[in-house]
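Long-time lurker. I teach an intro course on protein structure, and each term I like to show students one example going from raw sequence to a predicted 3D structure in token notation. This year I'd like something fresh instead of my usual example. Would anyone be willing to generate the tokens for the chain below so I can use it in lecture? Attribution to the forum is fine with me.
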Amino acid sequence: MVLRLPDMGDRYYLMPMLSGWTEVFASPGTRTSGTGPQQYLITGPGWQGEVPEGLTRVEALMAENPPAPADAPLVARMAKIGVVPGRGGDTSGLDPAVVAARKAAPAEGKARIVGHADTAGRAVNGWMVSTDTGTYGTDYLQRAYVARIGLGANLPQDAVYPTTSVDADGQPLTGANAYVIHFEKGQAPPVKGFWSVTLYDPQLFFVDNALHRYAISPRDDLKANPDGSLDLYIQHDSPGKARKANWLPAPSGDFVLMMRLYAPESAVIDGTWQPPEVRRVTPPS
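-- Reply from a regular --
Happy to contribute to a lecture. Here you go:
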């Protein structure tokens, strides 16, 4: 497969490539390869041949997605209960207790994945900030959790995704209330690319609204306060004409917020910069 990228000029862009196990194995883009025109030859690990002039070879896992060598111990353990490549759900010849345990495993596994939400990263002002994305090694629970909430997550050097479903008091975010995210002057997310805040329902789907606005970012021509600080208004009803540019409409029920911090500065990754709390406020009458 040949991938040709045009000259991106002064744009920030990213073209991450992920294996079937959601491992980022290559990430051409502004951070790694610049913005000029580029050409890549994407091959499987067993490919042999001559790379055409002008192409850079990138080795990719293709159709069969074999496990990584580090997975060998787990693959061996799974084989003991009949979970082997190509066998599907065949349980013939297995002890009935093993069959019963296999049937119960998906529900238990899902519960463990959902329960990992509180330990998937560092808790900061009600946000969960994880920099363990893009490469997972044998941390299967982290891989599964990230796949559940954001399949295809980038390396932290390319993007970090703080997520929250609670306000500053630890209460669930709901459209019955009004909230403000306040950035002090000079404390907006420090990124080389761009940042945004996206709103989802509890199942992590977009929520329709009158503005058809599903995320908010500086690209929306946000209005700063006189002192240089910045407020984002998250609520169901309009905060008024003067604040409309900074309004992210919320549904009437519960919701989730996710920041996207593209090409984050080191302060994001090492925790020096922290996302501000989502503060409940009384909307203007």
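Some talking points for your students: The chain has four helices and 16 strands. The mean pLDDT is 92.
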